[in-house]
Amino acid sequence: MKSSENIKAYLDNELSNDERLALESQMSENEDLRNEMNDFDQISKSLRASAKSHPVEGFEKTRNLLARQTQKPAWVKILAPVALLAILSAVLIPAFVGSGESVESAAMDKVATAAAAESSVASEAAAPSDFADKLDNRSMAPTNSPAESELAESAKADSKQKNIIREKSVTGQTYEPNRQVIKNGNVDILVPSLSAAEQAVKAIAQRYQGFVESSSSYAPRSESAQRTASYTLRVRSSNFDLALNELGSLGDVTSSSSSGEDVTAQVVDLEARLRTMRIEEAQYMEVLKSTRKIGEILEVKERIYRVRADIESLEAQRKELSSLAQMSTILVNLTEEPKVQEPIPTDWLGNTVTSATNAFGTIGRYFVQVLVYIAVFSPFWLPFVIYWFIKKRKA
Amino acid sequence: MPHTKTENNRHSGSPPDLEKLVVDHYARVYRFAANRVGSEAASDIAQDTFLTMQKSISKFRGQANVSTFILGITQNLCRNYSRKKANQELPLEHWIESHGDNEEHLINRQLLKNALKKLSPEHQEVVLLHEIEELTYKEIAEIVGIPEGTVKSRLYHAFSALRKDLCGGTP
Questions:
Q1: Is the pTM of this model over 0.80?
Q2: Cβ contact, residue pair A62, B22, below 8 Å
Q3: What residues of A are in contact with residue B103 (Cβ under 8 Å)?
Q4: What pLDDT shows up at residue B84?
Q5: What are phi and psi of A97, to 5 degrees?
Q6: Rounded to whole angstroms, how far apart are CA atoms B153 and B13?
Q7: ipTM of model over 0.90
Q8: Average pLDDT of the segment spanning A184-202
Q9: CA A216, CA A333: separation in Å to the nearest integer?
Q10: Higher confidence at residue A274 or residue B8?
Q11: Which residue in the set B53, B109, B152 is minimally distant from A50, CB to CB?
Q12: Sheet holding A228-236, edge to edge
C-alpha cells in the first residue's frame, strides 16, 4: 500500500507505531499529503455531523419479551420432550402397522413443526433463508395429515387413469366416457341454391345443440361468376358425425375431411396439478395464520399470490381444452351451382339483310381505299397520262 | 486529528448474560438497523436480533467479539428485509440528513449526500460502518467478512473519491 493510502488509517488511529512514525515523517516534508489528510478529516467530521439521529424505540418491549421467554418453568423443560416422544410413538407405531391417517397425526405434525421451528431459530443467524426453506419443506414434505392423504389418493387415482388410457390406446380398445377428444371437420359442398343452403346450415347447427360461430359470404358482380359462403359451426361432440352427414345431404360434396385429438391425458394432468396447488395454497394460509414476524408474513403472502396465479392459469387451460372437447368445430364451404343460359331463337331474313348490308359496306370501303391510293400515287402516273393525251391530239 | 475508538471486550468461557447484553447493546443494534431499513422496521429487527441471540447464546463461547457477533446477526436480518421489500440495501436517506444547520468549516450536506451516492455499495458500507457506526477496522472486517487490509483500502478509496468530488482534490 502506498504511504498516501495510510492517511485515512492514520486519522483513524489504525496504524502500528512504525507506520505512524513513517507517515508523520513523510507528511512533514510533503504538503500534498498534509492537504489530503486535512481534507479527509473535514469529510469525516462532516459525515459524523450529518449522521441521522434515530431515537431508540422498543427497548422495554424487547426486554419484556425476552424475560417472558426465559421464564419457562423447569417442569416444562423436562416434560415437554417426554410428551413429544410419547405423541410421536403414538402416531408412528400405528402408521407403521398401517392404520392410515388419524387425529393424532395432525397434532403430531403441529407439535413436530413447532419443535422444529424452535430449534431452528438459532441457525437463522448463519442461514437467514431458513424460513424460506421451512416453507418449502412444509409444502413439499410427505406427512400423514388429512390434506396430504387426500393428495396422495388423488395422485394415485390420476396415475391409474393415465395408465388405463395408455394401456387401452396400445391395445386399440375404445376408452369409456370421460375421454376428451377435440374433433374438427371440414366440408365443401356444391349447392343448387345458396340462400336455401344457408338456412339449412343454421338449422342443422341448432338441431345438434350447437351454434354458428362465424360466417362470411361472397357475391360477385358478374352474373356468370359463382356465389360462395363459409360457416364455422360448433356442435356437441356426440353429434359431430350426424351433423357432418346431414350437411353432406345439402348438395354435392366436393371435399370432406375430419380429425380428432385426444386431450384426455392433458386434462387429467391439469386437474391433478390444480389439486396439488390448491392444497399448497391451503397450507400457506395455515402458515400465515401462525406467523407473526413481518418479514415472514410478506414472504408467505408472496408465495400465496404466486400459487394463486398458477392456479388461475391452469384453470383457464383446463376450461379451454374441455370447451373444445365438448363442442366440435365444423368448417362448411358452400358454392352455388352455376346457372345454364337458354339459347336465343334465330331470324334468317333479318340475318341475311344484315350480312348483305355488311358486305356492301365492306366493298364500299375497299373502293374508297383504291381511290385514295390512286390519288396519293398520282405524281407518278399523271405525267405519263398527260403525255399520252397530248400525243394523241397531235396525231 | 486522529480519532479514538473504543473496542468491545471479548467474552470467554461461560455464555454472556442476555439481560446485560440487551441493556448494553440494544441502542447500538437499533441504530445499526435504523441506518439500513429505517426507523419503522428497526425495532422489529432489533427484537429479532436478540431473540436469535437468545436461541444461540448457549453456543457462544467467546470465539468472537460479542458486539460484532450481534451486529452480524442484525446485518443479516437487515439484508433479508431489504431483499424482501426489493429495496436498495443502504439507502442514504436512512443514515444521512439532507437538511440542517451546517457549521462553517463543514461540507454542505446535500453536496455530501450527492457525493456519497456516487460511491459503490461496498464503499458506502465501509463509510457507514466506520464513520456513522464508529466501528474499528477489525470489527468492520468481522461483520462484513473481509480482511482488515481490504477495509483499510476501501475506506481510503472511498474518501479519495469523496475528496475529489467535494474538495476538487486528485485521488
A1: no
A2: yes
A3: 49
A4: 80
A5: -70, -30
A6: 35
A7: no
A8: 90
A9: 10
A10: A274
A11: B109
A12: A211-218, A228-236, A327-336, A181-191, A252-262
